[in-house]
Amino acid sequence: MSESTELLLQTAHRIFTDLSTVEQVNRLEQGEWAQVLWDALEQNGLANALLPMACGGSDLDLGDGVALLKVAGYHAAPVPLAEHWLAGLALVDAGQSLPGGALTIAPPDAASGPLPGTHKRVPWGRSLPVVALGGVDGQRRLRLYPRALVIKQGANLAGEPSDELNLAGSEFSLDVTSSIDAMPWLARGALMRSAQMAGALQRCLALASAYVLERKQFGRPLAAFQAIQQELALLAAEVAAVDAAVDAAADAAQYGHSVGDALFDIAVAKARASMAVESATRIAHQVHGAMGFTYEHRLHHYTKRLWSWRDDFGTEVYWNTLLGRKALEVGGEGLWPFITRLGSTANA
Amino acid sequence: MTERLLFPHERLPAVAETLRHQVRAFLREELAAGHFLPASDSWMNASPEFSRKLGRAGWLGMTWPRKYGGAERSSLERYVLTEELLSAGAPVGAHWISDRQTGPMLLRYGTEEQRLRFMPGIARGECFFAIGMSEPDAGSDLAAVRTRADRVDGGWRLNGRKIWSSFAHDAHCMIVLCRTSPKEDDRHAGLSQLLVELDSPGIQMRPILNLTGHHHFNEVVFDDVLVPDARVIGDIGGGWKQVVSELAYERSGPERFLSYYPVLASLLGPLAAQIGESDGPLTTAVGALVTQLATLRQMSLSVAGRLQLGASLEIEAAVVKDLGTRFERLLPEQARLIAAAAGMPLHEGEFGRLLAEAVLRAPSSTLRGGTNEILRGAIARGLGLR
């Protein structure tokens, strides 16, 4: 990691510490858009960090972008950084410029089907311009909807806005041929979401470790009980596994030149991240006792996100099925060569 | 962010991939010639002949200096060799201990005479070592060893007993952890390591059969065995520190998650034939095993890459071993469920044989080299909880 990236991550950490506060994240659950935080990210070159300099970005490589998303996840940042990057990259790939301000995406469908008229679960769909990809009259198109019609406002388990939109009835300001397929788009999203999950998992471990050192029962800190130590070691192993899988996928995607080259690495990362959620959140909550079940304690900002995010951009069932199919296709002889190509230069 | 365990992605150098192809070609030939049958937990299968072939290919002690019989190759190349051998289920048990930990230990703590005397033989696959750590009353609590060495003219007189010594009956030497001065307040003090040649007078060996009825473990009894000063490893009284550093080599390697890989490989062919094009939960379950395996491999590689740079990664290694060996317990059980759900016969063919071996051997995965409960205690210490 370069010195400038190190600096960027420190800046992100500081901004999120100051502005992704408990109160701010709680206000998001009431539907409030965190404009102050977004402005700070823009002013510090973070909002567009992954995008080319020409678009006001820092031209960060994917591995560093993933590191930044981990920091965002660690702070439960109440802004759609990953969605904005996905939308921005899609526009850049199509040779377009960015309209300015935060963007969101209509979640990619793995099937390269037609652009649906309505879209469910669009993050921040009510307040941000929407980039959608899909087939229109047999062509892959990319469209930008500056203000989509909202059918129904909703929220995911973490209270992040997640809206149903009527795109067929909405006006678009851009309609161009898209160069990327649905699958690489989905994979890119899966990698980014996995990175946020890695960060949120780290925070669960940090909160749990701090709590068991501070909370006393039977005259001793909880951390003094072997039963608690064993559980936290299990939690730490899950957190470490997700971190490693995400780093490997980011690295593979970066030097494989395209996200498509790293499809299976990303499959492993998103599947592993989603698989970790059950036990990691269970342990984090269990050691926090009833305190972690209150609205007052911050743990829920992270566990609720993890319960939501594990379903985004493909569940562990989706990605494991993709990997299982590949395993069955290559068979007993081919599986080991397939596994050893993961994380290396060519695994297409 | 808070302190965290790091597993940065390790990219394998091109030279390691070249080696991988050479190893695969060698294994194909050996298999074709019927020289070995792929096995579950194959690092517990010893074939001195197979080990000698690896020695001739320059694949034992391959990271060591040439003057000690090594090939001065990188740890990552050794990693690739190891994962290829294990995934193929090749019988690597005879040289396993001497290549994995004895050589590195002699390099770190041995005398020049000891290195020149033993390492070239290890690298040729002609000299095998056994571990002499556990005792009847010293398992997880290794510092409780009672085997004692008393000072005599020119050396030490060794008395005591070691158990669980894998392949000691085929080995030439054992490194024995023993007490060289009485227990004091610091129970880690006063321990030393002696290199004992197993044909020395006063040594008796008795098989300890494992639950399959196989002779793999041994009890080794030392009765007034004389060990010359020249066979002391490192410092008298420095045994504990040496053993702990030895354990780091033991804990994060691919043998901590690949032991039952052959079960998974042998499942795929019959499973595909059984379920055809139909996709469903069984495909997903196979994928879940692939996901966990691929992740563990990245973690293990990351530790290997950083150990090479001299990092101290006791906690990271413990994480790999805990997670990896729990996966080893899971894999045969999952494979069995998948096969049964697909209507595959469970007790026939290659899959049936490998599954049966795995089921019977799996209980040792989460015991050998430090139980998972002890490892998790070490991880908790690393997290600052104790």
> Largest interface, counted with CB-CB under 8 A?
A-B, 60 and 60 residues
Please report the number of helical segments of chain B: 11
What portion of residues of chain B belong to β-strands?
Answer: 5-15%
**What Rg of chain B, in angstroms, do the CA atoms define?**
21 Å
Could you say which structural class the secondary elements and strand pairing of chain B correspond to?
alpha+beta
The domain tally of chain B reads: 3
Distance, first to last CA of chain A: 26 Å
CATH superfamily of the largest domain in chain B: Butyryl-CoA Dehydrogenase, subunit A, domain 3
Could you tell me the CATH topology label of the largest domain in chain B.
Butyryl-CoA Dehydrogenase, subunit A, domain 3
* N→C terminal distance of chain B: 21 Å
**What pattern of helices and strands is seen along the backbone of chain B?**
HHHHHEEEEEEEEHHHHHH
Q: What's the main sheet of chain A like?
A: 4 strands, mixed
What structural category do the secondary elements of chain A indicate? alpha+beta
Query: In the CATH scheme, what's the topology name of the largest domain in chain A?
Result: Butyryl-Coa Dehydrogenase, subunit A, domain 1
Helix share of residues of chain B?
Answer: 40-55%
- The assembly state of the depicted protein chains is heterodimer
How many domains of chain A, as an integer?
2
- Please write the CATH class name of the largest domain in chain A: Mainly Alpha
Beta content of chain A comes to 5-15%
Radius of gyration of chain A: 20 Å
How many H/I helical runs of chain A? 10
In short:
Chain A is an alpha+beta fold and 348 residues long.
